Every structure is written in structure tokens, then in C-alpha cells.
């Protein structure tokens, strides 16, 4: 361990103090004194000054050199890159030196996405709020250059055939309800966006191994006494798997649901596994699809999302055994199952309403939305399987805290949700947007960006919204996991209510689009 | 953590007694610290309806200095160092006993940023908006205000009459290269005037209510400001609402501040402050109040100057 000498000096001084100091205070004092003594006794070390990494994709991985950055984003996926782009787009933050740590070779080589070919099954539905965030940071134009599919209609129903709801973007005077984009397109758009600016970022093609705050170690393994430490003002040291190290004022954990940053920083989580897995794949129709379809089946919902051209994406949630079976069964049987699930399987079609026949809601006629008059439609038939089938287990997870001293979590590292409403990555983009704004506000008034009070502002803002959304999604998931007569009728009533009570429908659309922040107080 | 505070403040006061000679103009400041350390034992030094100009009486009881204080202010006694670090950690802990001050800090800085950027014609969207300007922070905030100002690019001098505060501020500022350029002086505003120092902006927050002679203090601040420079002062208004919130609620109910920190009679109303600043040839251009939202625990700027308020003025060049 470095500064062993300093530590021994302090232990002697602390013993005669009156009473025992709490461990945390003792460590703090040790740390500070060790720093001071080290500074007094050790000769001035010429620490690495290679901080101005203005050249993108420079190769920094050299053991022995410690680079200093302002922010280290661990995880260069969609949400991590969105944060970097957002920081690059604001005047107050575009001078910050950012390190992005991700071993994905695509980041380092800047490989583009082929525009032709079949769509990748990993897609995300981006809400209008996310679309405007992308437009603000200047990345949406790159998305529009690639395959993307706006949709303005949505139909939700279940297997009982007792009710259905149709949503239309014109109900809220908008053009689109959302856009379905492949994840790799989103990612490469963000990458292109940031490459087009002269933002001082450095990409480290490596994995995070340990995190050290000042001289107290938080990770597995320890640094040798020969390794140089961080300059003043950069209190967190990150050691990477290729042997290089870097120092930062703030570490952002954007490394997904199995976040290493979350583990190293000791954030506790709450959550549970859903006893469900999701199968995703790309399918083809004979006609174009412009509507998003979701049918709740006894084992879980099946969603059909338009992806562009004649392709659609399937997200089918079911119990893990069936998922394993369906993943390997032959194509023809699988397609038959899919069409069965979307069409007449498990139950009848709902009776569609004719004009004005809203049943008990007919007195709301003057205020009825456009989509309330639309009749039930059957989704387009799936004719071909266009990609391999992938299966993922589903779970709910929420970190109890998003921020601690010098460390903050965003995206899936902080929360994961059920895919039934396509909200997961949108929550992550919301986190990135909020964090970058909070950092900008902090810099405007000279705050140190690693300070807990600043990071807690971000946490307070996002926690409430994320928990509200998770509660809604979990509630829906639980409501649909039980097949019980009276509950089915209640669900049918909910469908009818959502379809015909216009203020409720508008509220649901606003909330799902990200325009309304909390489900109740509009 | 609450039990550490009287011990630290006792040690803090002990070091201030030796500096009484150096700071004849700030007798009330020493009284404040004595109040801070004795107040928690229940004894209040409070002649409530006394006039603002209370002269420091040497006959008031004073505890003997304790602790192994060094004779030379600049030597680094290890044991003192440990104490200072402990104080610094408490001081700078945004969730610790100085939490209300930390919570209010960004709001005060937002006002300072917007008014001074406008005054000096700087771009508020630039991260180092005050580059090249000389600021002085007169007060006992331990660097809580000086450090953000230094990060915003200003060349900051921090002034405090209490040696210990200066040492703590110095130790904390040295942790970050951006703030280690701050110059801390253990002196008074009057002494700086005698040294003929000048600054582009003079900032003194939450000090004037602890000063014996506010008019003289304002004259010193004005003398430190260059022609067409800016002066920013914040204090608490002498109103009934301020009595209810800043004294009764903050000291007795919520225990944000030790009892006896503030004397209602030494508060200035906003009109009085404007008047004494005018007499010191500073014309007040803008004033804003601070409002606290108990639900979110955050402060914000408001038009309500009946409790905490901050005033920005410019030095007129007529005299």
C-alpha cells in the first residue's frame, strides 16, 4: 500500500485521544494526515500531466502512467454515451475532460452501422421525450440517417376478449407516439455525435477492476507501492484490466444491470426476479406495419413493434421453460405459435365498438378521442423469421441510492424494469439528461462536481420518477399474472375506461411518452 | 457529532482570545464564538434590547485558553493538525452541523454570479466567468464561499479575524489545485484598507449582523472596492418574521444554529443597509431574498426580503 509510513505516524497520534473516535472519522483523519505527511516528506513527484486528451480515440493504455480526468464514465453503452454527448453539447460542461471505459471494440474503432440487411432483434422504443433529448444533444439526425420506425397507433388487449384499448398520437395532438430504433443504431448515432465535436474525451478499451477513493481501497486487490497516485483534486483512482489507471473527480456507473461500479461502491439494491423470460426476434410481414401491438396472454404479454420496411420486432414474455423451448423449436412451429398468440390463441377477439357505442361511457360522447371510435384490428400476419431468437430473464432491480461521494449511477446500473411498456432505456436517458443538467448547474456556481450534495440533487429528481414508473409497471405485470374471474372483469373494465374516458387516455399517453413526469399529478 | 462541536468551538475560542488585540473592530465576532461555545450549556450572553454598538467589555467572564496552541501561527503542530482536520471535516460535511449553510450556498452563489456577470459584462454560460477579477471574501465562512468563487475563475482573497478558521480554510483549499490559489489572510477589513488593497468585488455574507459598528464596516468595505467595483452584502432583516424564523425557529426549535448566534437587535433592516451603504458611496442596485422550502430542504432566490436578504451595490465614483 502506498503511504504506509504516513499511516504508521497517524496511528500513534490517534491512540491517546479521549475516547474512541468512530471508524469513519478515524479513517478520514488518517487519510488527510497521510496526505499531508506524504506531501511534506516525499519529494515533489512529477505526476503524469497527459490530461488534455483532445484527440479522440488516442491509445492511453500504458501501465505506469496515470491520466487525470474530470469525469470517468464506466460503460460506453447507450446511456453512458448519451451522458457524454449531453455534456459535450452544453457550454458549461464542454470543457470537462471525460474518460469512457468500455471494452467494446466498436467504441474504439468507430464502426458504422450497415443500413441494409435485416434489423437486429435488440431494439428500443424511444419516447417523444427521449427524441427531444436526442435532438437537443444533436444525435437524432444520425438516427434518422439509419433505419428507424415512427409509429402513431397502439392497440392493447388481452386473451379474455373482454376489452381492448386503442391509442392514437392525434389524441394528444402529436404526430407520433414513439419511435422504434435498433440499439446499435442508437449507439452508433451517439458515437457519431460525440466524434463530431471536439469534446475532450478519451476512450479506454478496458474493464474496470478496482476503485480507490483517496487512499482507502474499495476493490479487490490493491495497488503496489510503486504505482503513482492521483494529483490533488482528483480523489478517485480507477484501475483497469489492462494495467492502466486513471484518476477522476466523479465516477459515473453506466455499466448495466450487473454494474461493477455499483458493486465496488457498495450500493445496496432492492428487487426481485420475475419468473419470466423474454424472447426477442425480428420477423417479416407481407405488408408494412405502422402500429404497435401488445396482447396480454396468461403467461405474459407479447408485443409486436414496427421496425421499418416490412419488419417488426417481437418481445414475447413467458415462463422460462417455455422460453427455452421456443428458442430452439423450428422456425415454422415458432411462427405458427406467434400468429396464434397474436390472433385467436388463448381466447376470442374483443368485440369492437361501433360509433357511439361506448356502453356506460356513452355520455362522454362529446369529448371522445379519435381512437375511441376505432374498431379492433387484428395484427398483420407474420410470414418469416428474420433473425435469431434471443432469450433474457426478467427482473426488477432498484439501487437504494444513486449517489455517494464521487460516485453516481445512471441507467440500468441504477434500475431495471419489465419490458412491457418499453420504458427501460427511456428511464436511463432521463437519468443521463438530468445528471448532465445537474452537473452544469453545479459548475455554474463553482461547485466541486464530486460533492455529494450536488449528486443528491440528481438522485432526488430521478428517484421519485423512476420509482413511480417502476411501481406502475410492476403493478401492471402483477395484475396480468393472475387468471381469476373477477380480476379479469376488472381488467376489462380498465381497458374500457382507458379507451373511452378521454382525459384518462390522454394522461396515459402523456405519461408513457415522457411528457408527464409523474403518473398522478399532471 | 453534536458533542464534538462545543469541544471544537472551545478550542477555537481559546485561539481567538490571543487575537483580541489584532481585531479591535470585531469585538462582537469574538462574542459570537463565546456565545457559540457557552450557548450549548444554556448560558446565554444576551442583552436582548441593547443597541447595535456594544463595546467589548474586558470584564465579562472568559474561560482560560486551553489546549496546546502554538506560538507561531504558521507551524504545523501535529496534534493541532489532527484537531483542524477534524474541524475541517465537520465544517465541510454538507450533511453535518453546518448543513443549513451548505444548503444556502448555491443560492447565494447564483445571485452573485448573475449580478456580477452582468456588472462586469461576463458570459454567464462560461465555466470560468470571473477569470482575471480580484475578489475578497470578508467573513467567517471557512472558505465555503471562497472556493466556489475560485473555481469560477476569480482570484480570491479570503479574510477572517480568527486564525483557526484561516488554517482550516487553507487546509481544505489545498486539496484541489483549482482552489489552492486562494490567498487567506488572518486580518480585518480595516487592516486591508490600511494596506491599501483594492478588489474588483468585495463580498461579505452574514457578517454585518455580528459587527459592532456596521457603518464603519461598510466604509471599510467600500474603501476596499475599486471605482466602479461591486460590493455584495448579505444579512438578516430586522423584522418580526426574521425573529420568528431566524432566531426562534432556527436556534430554538430546529437547532440549526447554536442559541445566541444572532441578536435580533443587531439585525439591520434593508432600508438601513441601503442608507449606510449610500453613505459609504455604494449605491445598491439589486436586492433579493432567500426562501426556504421545508419539503425539499432547498433554498431559492425570491423577492421576499423580510428574512434573509442579499444586496448588490456598485461603488459610485462621485467622491
Automatic annotation (TrEMBL), chain A:
Residues 70-326, 387-464 form the FAD-binding domain. It is a peripheral membrane protein. Its EC number is 1.14.15.45, 1.14.15.46. Pathway: Cofactor biosynthesis; ubiquinone biosynthesis. Keywords: FAD, Flavoprotein, Membrane, Mitochondrion, Mitochondrion inner membrane, Monooxygenase, Oxidoreductase, Ubiquinone, Ubiquinone biosynthesis. One of its GO terms (molecular function) is 2-methoxy-6-polyprenolphenol 4-hydroxylase activity. It is found in: Mitochondrion inner membrane. It catalyses: a 4-hydroxy-3-(all-trans-polyprenyl)benzoate + 2 reduced [2Fe-2S]-[ferredoxin] + O2 + 2 H(+) = a 3,4-dihydroxy-5-(all-trans-polyprenyl)benzoate + 2 oxidized [2Fe-2S]-[ferredoxin] + H2O; a 2-methoxy-6-(all-trans-polyprenyl)phenol + 2 reduced [2Fe-2S]-[ferredoxin] + O2 + 2 H(+) = a 2-methoxy-6-(all-trans-polyprenyl)benzene-1,4-diol + 2 oxidized [2Fe-2S]-[ferredoxin] + H2O. Pfam families: FAD_binding_3. The keyword Mitochondrion applies. Belongs to the UbiH/COQ6 family. PANTHER family: UBIQUINONE BIOSYNTHESIS MONOOXYGENASE COQ6, MITOCHONDRIAL. Component of a multi-subunit COQ enzyme complex. This is Ubiquinone biosynthesis monooxygenase COQ6, mitochondrial. It comes from Morus notabilis. The gene is COQ6.
